[in-house]
Design goal:
Number of helices: 9
Strand content: 5-15%
Shape: globular
Largest sheet: 4 strands, mixed
Structural class: alpha/beta
Number of strands: 9
Radius of gyration: 22 Å
Length: about 300
């Protein structure tokens, strides 16, 4: 896919239309799978990990824990059973409810003749608790130098909006209930095959900043009731287009990154159901841009 360099002489409308058209083209011609660009594959689209064993969950348990984290707004991708948390010196807080996962146990039945030598497995349900539900545990710190270059003009823009940005944890997200943006520390960002750690960090930050504009007391966008519904998907389209627009305006990169198209493709259903959805999302992303610019210039 070719790239378009955005010149200073282009109008904001042309910039946004160019980016939107590029994303549509990328989705039609194929894009690389989306990959989170920071250590620990953090976030709700990362693979959940067991705190005690260090193993990543697999199969349907990945989807189940993703959904649980989205519904409960957990900020960690780390899970463990009640007993495992106790083994780690932590305690599940009173009144907390675990998420159901499935594990398979091998059984022996001498009365059944098997035609193959494969073991017989039976599904069993278990419950695990997120790290946000326990007390007395902290994830081990990752001691690595930051590869993110500080972009003073971008940091100044974000600060001028007066958005509450809190750094730490394992998830990049906008927490609607408490009205703040959570970001992993810059040193956790390693980039991806298609963007540098600096581009990755600021693109993620601006994605969440776009979400922040949608609060009821700001632009009042509908965020959706649950992970994966149409309103949720539409908001993700708005946020990623907003991030692409902001990256262009703030000169974080002059090229459309394929990561934007790859992220948006994850929400293909809403685009399939309504071919105008991405243009509606682009319009709302432009409104978010205007709102942020008005705050930055105030």
């Amino acid at each position: 896919m070719s790239t378009t360099v955005l010149s200073e002489s282009q109008s904001r409308f042309d910039v946004y239309r160019t980016i939107t058209d590029k994303i549509l083209l990328a989705m039609e011609t194929g894009v690389d799978p989306f990959a989170m660009p920071w250590h620990g594959v953090a976030g709700r689209i990362s693979r959940p990990k067991n705190a005690d064993t260090g193993a990543f969950y697999r199969g349907i348990n990945v989807v189940a824990l993703w959904a649980e984290a989205a519904i409960k707004d957990y900020g960690s991708n780390v899970w463990a059973s009640y007993r495992q948390w106790q083994n780690l010196g932590a305690q599940v807080r009173k009144g907390q409810h675990g998420a159901v996962i499935v594990f398979y146990k091998e059984i022996e039945d001498e009365d059944v003749e098997e035609e193959s030598n494969r073991p017989r497995l039976i599904a069993r349900a278990s419950r695990v608790f997120n790290a946000d539900q326990v007390e007395g545990w902290q994830r081990p710190k990752i001691e690595i130098p930051s590869r993110v270059e500080v972009l003073a003009q971008v940091d100044a823009f974000v600060t001028a909006t007066k958005a509450d940005v809190r750094r730490g944890g394992e998830v990049a997200c906008y927490r609607t209930k408490d009205d703040y943006i959570q970001m992993p520390h810059p040193e956790l960002f390693i980039g991806s095959a298609t963007r540098t750690p600096t581009e990755a960090y600021y693109a993620v930050l601006l994605h969440e900043l776009t979400h922040w504009t949608g609060a009821k007391h700001r632009l009042d966008r509908q965020f959706g009731e649950r992970f994966g519904d149409d309103a949720y998907a539409m908001e993700e389209l708005v946020a990623e287009l907003g991030a692409a627009f902001l990256c262009a305006d703030l000169r974080i990169t002059n090229d459309l990154r394929p990561d934007h198209a790859a992220y948006i493709e994850r929400w293909q259903k809403v685009l399939t159901d309504d071919r105008k959805a991405i243009f509606m999302a682009a319009n709302r992303a432009s409104q978010a841009m205007d709102f942020l610019n008005s705050l930055a210039k105030a």
